[in-house]
Amino acid sequence: MEVPAIRTVGLTRLYRKPRKGWLRRRKAEEVKDFVALGGVDLEVRPGELFGLLGPNGAGKTTLIKILTTLLAPTAGTAEIDGLDVVTHAKQLRPIINMVSGGETSGYGILNVRENLWMFSRIYGVPNELVAKRIDRMLGIVGLTEKANSRLSHLSTGQRQKMNFCRGFITDPKILFLDEPTLGLDVTAARNIRGFIKEWMKENPARTMLLTTHYMAEADELCDRLAIIDQGKVLACDTPANLKRKVQEYPIFELSLSPGRDVLSDVSKLPGVHQATRTETPTTVELKVALKEDSIIGSVVQGVIAGGGKIQTLKKVEPTLEDVFIELVGHGLG
Ligand SMILES: Nc1ncnc2c1ncn2[C@@H]1O[C@H](COP(=O)(O)OP(=O)(O)OP(=O)(O)O)[C@@H](O)[C@H]1O
Fold this sequence. Notes:
Layout: E1 6-18, E2 31-44, E3 49-53, H1 60-67, E4 75-80, E5 83-84, H2 89-92, E6 96-100, H3 112-122, H4 127-141, H5 156-168, E7 174-178, H6 186-202, E8 207-212, H7 215-221, E9 224-229, E10 232-237, H8 239-245, E11 251-256, H9 263-267, E12 272-279, E13 284-290, H10 296-305, E14 310-316, H11 320-328
Parallel strand pairs: 3-8, 3-9, 6-7, 7-8
Antiparallel strand pairs: 1-2, 1-4, 4-5, 9-10, 11-13, 11-14, 12-13
Helix pairs in contact: 3-4, 4-5
Adenosine-5'-triphosphate binds at residues 15, 17, 34, 36, 54, 56-62, 213.
């Protein structure tokens, strides 16, 4: 039987949250446990590019930290390539690597090439391979010109690119990417997504677990994904199957001029399954999932009666955000 690349059973992590006055009186009854992960069961197959999609605070980083042996679970088990993250941490560390968006790793006084060389050698990458891999990765992220610049002289985005390189140069069997495109410009993020796909195709034995709260990124990259909120997995499937689940409700997007909030009026109309509102500096976007197409007539009337001014109206295909809204009743933002 195939050994799963990642397997968790009832994985739970509590954080001790000090209540007010904790510094003065640290009594047991004043400390309340916070459930960051509440019994997560997951199985990722070898070769899969698996996504974790969830809002801020959902538990994604906590899960990745446990899987990469940086944090101990409170209960449940987690295995990487058949090795338990607690009892076999030492054996599994050489086959994994992790990139965390927004993380500042490396030494400021070393330049980019020296930092990458150091991390590769710590992992035991043969010296003759290191230079080649560093050059390739720097080229991919567009950092070749900064190879000899000190880390402390790089911008935040450039450091993030170096972090990204660091994750790949050890050629891990299982790679964890926590928000890899966080804070990167559009072109850099696109290049990185392209490289992620290419890297996975290069060797079918590689597995990747990626967290993101960019839905388009999850949709574009992931073979399967788990939607996670408040420490629980709400759904787990391919992006296409997840979207199919919400296809029974036609979805319309109305762009309105800023003005009175008509969301609650629209939500109460018969035949409206879900309604959400997003504000941009110039417009208000109203998204409605309806029991059937014909209901849109009463939605338009309801918006106008409520004082809303409609700029555009279109029917749209469901996105992963619609799946998320269906599952938790609000958007990811
Ligand atoms: N060291 C800690 N002590 C107490 N609570 C913590 C700690 N680390 C995380 N938490 C809490 O656990 C929950 C999950 O946090 P986590 O960082 O795993 O979320 P996330 O899904 O990665 O969020 P984001 O997208 O914002 O990075 C949050 O409510 C957070 O406040």
